[in-house]
């Protein structure tokens, strides 16, 4: 009788353990949510807010190491990016936290985002940041079927800037894109980037850029000033190779007012800096330089928003070993368009697991991304 009773007890314990494990597994599949009674807006991101800090900490506490590192990685999908199937595979393996919608149709991108988010809900991934190069000068050839707008250099008034930003943002909202890599705030000197911003007249560059930023962010879309620390006076093309600023950082003066007026994101370019007494990149692109990202952008300019690299498959950075790790060490939060998202995740995870200081940097970067997702309303 005792033996039979013992067997029954053991059987019951096994069943209870199995049910508990299933419950735990089911719980892990749930996407972390914040308090339904607490709502935040994009305007809250840059403001000190203990409730928002608590919400961020609550979300990140529910993520494992794989999901934390995934927040930092944003590959591209489309004609010049990865295939839809590849991105779907990355989502299934939980190694990315966002996607750049790169060269496709409005309908295709809408369909992809709907599909990706359905998978995220099933798997338990956090919702994604979906970005686009929706600059006035590029949007109509980056997103086919988007409403035609004037190119930046064709805009003649602040009223047209407002109309332009509102129309672009309306299209992005319809697609599901919540992160615009615009405006270009480089001076109009370089043939690669100069025509893409409002810098054809120096006096209009900053006020028009601020207007574009503010109108974009009113539509619940992150605006991005680029390309820090300044690409307009650099003669070469960072798509092909590493370019260099020799001496004074003449375009830095474009950024303080943008930061003061609340731009939420800044993109860092693959540009080295030499012969500058205060800021040197030691042969590395700015994306991988603590001197530029942390010392200059974060500390001196007091930027507290989201810092994204330019595409990491570009010639200006692609030959840098462990470039993603270096970018996070430098102070960036998002690694954009890595050559291989799988390898990038593996490299970041390996360093994260053995280096406590680097782990702290990764967690801080992930908190920035999660904070932005909360302020966009993605986790309500």
What does this structure look like?
This protein is α/β, with parallel strands linked by helices. The protein has one domain: TIM Barrel. 45% of the residues lie in helices and 11% in strands. It contains 13 helices and 13 strands. The strands form 4 sheets. The protein has a 7-stranded parallel β-sheet with strand order 2-3-5-7-8-10-12. A two-stranded parallel sheet has the order 1-13. Strands 4-6 form a two-stranded parallel sheet. Helix 4 packs parallel to helix 5, helix 7 packs parallel to helix 8 and helix 12 crosses helix 13. The longest helix has 27 residues. The N terminus is likely disordered.
Q: Can you identify the CATH superfamily? A: Glycoside hydrolase, family 3, N-terminal domain
Assign the CATH topology.
Answer: TIM Barrel
Strand content: 5-15%
Strand/helix succession: HHHEEHEEHEHEHEHEEHEEHEHEHH
How many β-strand runs? 13
Q: Separation of termini?
A: 55 Å
Per the principal axes of the C-alpha atoms, what is the gross shape? globular
Whole-number count of domains: 1
Subunit arrangement of the protein: single chain
Q: What is the mean predicted local confidence, pLDDT?
A: 89
**Rg over CA atoms:** 22 Å
The main pleated sheet reads as:
7 strands, parallel
- Named at the architecture level, the CATH assignment is Alpha-Beta Barrel
Structural class: alpha/beta
Q: What order do the strands of the largest sheet run in, or round the barrel if closed?
A: 2-3-5-7-8-10-12
CATH class category: Alpha Beta
* Helical fraction: 40-55%
- Number of helices, counting only DSSP H or I runs of 4 residues or more: 13
User: Regions with pLDDT < 50 over 5+ consecutive residues?
Assistant: 1-28
């Amino acid at each position: 009788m005792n033996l039979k009773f013992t067997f029954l007890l053991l059987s019951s314990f096994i069943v209870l353990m199995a049910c508990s494990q299933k419950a735990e597994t089911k719980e892990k599949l749930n996407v972390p949510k914040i308090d339904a009674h607490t709502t935040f807006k994009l305007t809250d991101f840059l403001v000190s807010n203990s409730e928002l800090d608590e919400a961020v900490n609550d979300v990140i506490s529910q993520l494992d190491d794989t999901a934390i590192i995934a927040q930092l990685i944003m590959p591209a999908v489309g004609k010049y990016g990865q295939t839809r199937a590849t991105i779907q595979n990355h989502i299934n393996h939980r190694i990315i936290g966002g996607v750049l919608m790169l060269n496709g149709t409005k309908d295709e991108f809408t369909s992809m985002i709907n599909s990706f988010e359905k998978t995220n809900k099933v798997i338990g991934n956090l919702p994604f940041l979906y970005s686009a190069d929706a600059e006035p000068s590029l949007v109509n050839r980056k997103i086919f079927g988007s409403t035609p707008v004037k190119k930046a250099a064709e805009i003649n008034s602040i009223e047209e800037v407002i109309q332009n930003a509102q129309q672009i943002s309306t299209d992005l909202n319809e697609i599901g894109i919540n992160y615009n890599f615009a405006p270009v705030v480089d001076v109009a000197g370089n043939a690669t980037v100069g025509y893409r911003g409002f810098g054809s007249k120096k006096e209009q560059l900053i006020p028009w850029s601020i207007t574009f930023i503010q109108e974009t962010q009113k539509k619940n879309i992150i605006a991005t000033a680029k390309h820090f620390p300044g690409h307009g006076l650099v003669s070469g093309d960072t798509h092909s190779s590493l370019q260099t600023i020799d001496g004074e950082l003449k375009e830095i003066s474009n950024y303080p007012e943008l930061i003061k007026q609340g731009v939420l994101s800044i993109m860092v370019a693959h540009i080295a800096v030499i012969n500058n007494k205060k800021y040197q990149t030691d042969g590395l692109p700015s994306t991988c330089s603590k001197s530029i990202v942390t010392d200059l952008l974060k500390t001196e300019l007091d930027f507290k928003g989201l810092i994204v690299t330019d595409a990491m498959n570009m010639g200006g950075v692609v030959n840098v070993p462990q470039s993603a790790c270096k970018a996070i060490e430098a102070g960036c939060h998002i690694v954009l368009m890595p050559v291989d998202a799988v390898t990038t995740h593996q490299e970041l995870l390996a360093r994260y697991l053995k280096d406590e200081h680097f782990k702290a940097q990764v967690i801080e970067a992930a908190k920035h991304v999660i904070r932005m997702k909360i302020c966009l309303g993605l986790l309500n």
